[in-house]
Amino acid sequence: MRFTTYTKYKGGFLEALNLEGLLESLADFLLQSGFAGGPRYHPWWGWTGDEPEHSLESLKDRLLEALIRTGQLTPEMLAELRGDGGDEDARQALAELLDGLVERLVEEGYLQVDGGAPAMPSSFRQLEAEGHVDEAARAARHVEFSLTAKGLDFLAYRTLRDIISALGRSSHGSHETPHLDTGIEANAASRPYAFGDSLNMDIPATLGNAIRRSGPSLPLDLDYPDLMVHQAEYRSSCATVLMLDVSHSMILYGEDRFTPAKKVALALSHLIRTQFPGDTLRVITFGDRAEEIPLARVGKAQVGPFHTNTAEGIQLARRLLRSQGKDMRQIIMITDGKPSAITLPGGRVYKNPAGLDPRVLKETFREVAACRKSNIIINTFMLARDPALVAFVSRVCELARGRAYFTSTMSLGQYLMRDFLRGKTSRG
Fold first, then answer.
1. 47-73 burial, b if ≥16 CB within 10 A, otherwise e?
2. pTM of this prediction?
3. pLDDT digits (tens, 9 = 90+) for 196-227
4. Which has the closest alpha carbon to 105: 189, 165, 17, 196?
5. 128 and 254: one domain?
6. Based on the structure, what is the number of domains in the chain?
7. Quick check: 230 and 189 in contact, CB under 8 A?
């Protein structure tokens, strides 16, 4: 991916901007859910626009909003951008600045751009009696971006930091529990560095990675994936399957409940990977059908015009957990609806949108009971307070010896992390 270099801003505004702060402020936009089916697609009334949400142009629009909202684009900077040509100069200079920001995000490894090189934003032409046409903006709508693994890792770390801060802890490594941490004591194998780790570097392993990757030349080419850190001793382990409801209600009715759920999933993944590496985490989405998705795909997961096949989700989670030889096995289910579908023996999906269908409930409770027999705990986080949902979840807790939490999108992460860390402490 090659960009035009804007020397006017390379050492000025661009270097002064807080890149990570901007990225964090765009977390909801970068992880936005939407409905499966394509950009601006809605299951009931179809297409609602022709500009993809992940186009380069939409990214630049959000970057500009973030710059203004966070106060990084000051009146003095705007005045300098405007120059002698007034609004015309400001328009072109601002376009160049935004393109430079995208360049920095790509160079730092947070984003990748697909679909070819974006047209440069300095291409303008005047059309008589028709105003201005920004050909670059039009071309940028056909170029899409996506988060890299580093970008996802960064957003996961920031989300986890915010959640743990809300719990009253100074950092996510300060809770009292025997776990793998990157502190001073180092009596276990080192592992790759991740956002949030103390820089207790394993220098030989780090240098060895760099040499294996680029050869023994000087100066040594040290990159982010080369970094290795020491870890301390860990005593117990837990296998977790996170079930995410992708039914239509998770994004309808004026509230996006799915994007906060994805952010919590990423934060939990980061916590387990960096602080409890003896643990495992698998993610399942369940709508009409249930499927496991890799953690790298969580950021792009979407809801759809689906019912809620809780039974198949629990069945799949139980199958995944049975293969894990851990001290504890648990299912964490995030949902806002009662079960309304099951998969029949022949593979056909039986649906009843009204919910609480006796046939659906019987199959769902059968799967819950099977979890109890396998010593699998089910903890449920409910994003709604429908009486029928409350009754269903109460029965699930009774059968599976788990816990239920009535929460909102604002407090979901705090409840989930508090529950997870409590479990880790009790097993210490």
1. eeeeebebbbbbbbebbbebbeeeebb
2. 0.68
3. 677 778 888 888 888 888 888 888 888 888 88
4. 17
5. no
6. 3
7. no
Q: In the sheet where 238-245 sits, what is the strand order?
A: 290-293, 280-286, 238-245, 328-335, 376-382, 404-406
Residues 213 and 357 in one domain: no
Residue 2's alpha-carbon distances to 113, 187, 189, 244, 263, in angstroms, are 10, 45, 39, 38, 31
If asked whether residues 281 and 371 sit together in one domain, one would say yes
Residues 391, 378 share a domain: yes
Answer yes or no: is 201 within a domain. yes
pLDDT, one tens digit per residue, over 146-174 is 888 888 888 888 888 877 766 654 333 33
Secondary structure element (H or E) that encloses residue 330, with its range: strand 328-335
Q: Is the pLDDT of residue 141 over 80?
A: no
d(CA 204, CA 215): 15
Identify whether 305 is part of a domain: yes
Helices (H) and strands (E) in the chain, counts: 15, 16
Start-end of H helices in 83-148: 87-107, 135-140
Show Cβ contacts of residue 338 under 8 Å, excluding neighbours closer than 6 positions: 308, 355, 356, 386, 388, 389, 392
Q: Are 340 and 357 in contact (CB under 8 A)?
A: yes
Q: Within its chain, how far is the Cα of 129 from the centroid?
A: 46
Q: Please, what is the angle between helix 258-275 and helix 149-166, to 10°? A: 90
Instruction: Decide if 70 contacts 25 (C-beta within 8 A).
Output: yes
Instruction: Annotate 342-353 with b (16+ C-beta within 10 A) or e (fewer).
Output: bbeeeeeeebee
d(CA 186, CA 233) in angstroms, rounded, equals 8
Q: How far is CA 69 from CA 16, 22, 78, 111, 208, in A?
A: 16, 10, 14, 22, 44
Same domain, 341 and 193: no
CATH of the domain at 333: 3.40.50.410
Q: Find the domain containing 383 and state its range.
A: 238-426
Cβ(231)–Cβ(195) below 8 Å: no
Strands (E), 34-77: 41-42, 46-47
Q: 100 and 14, same structural domain?
A: yes
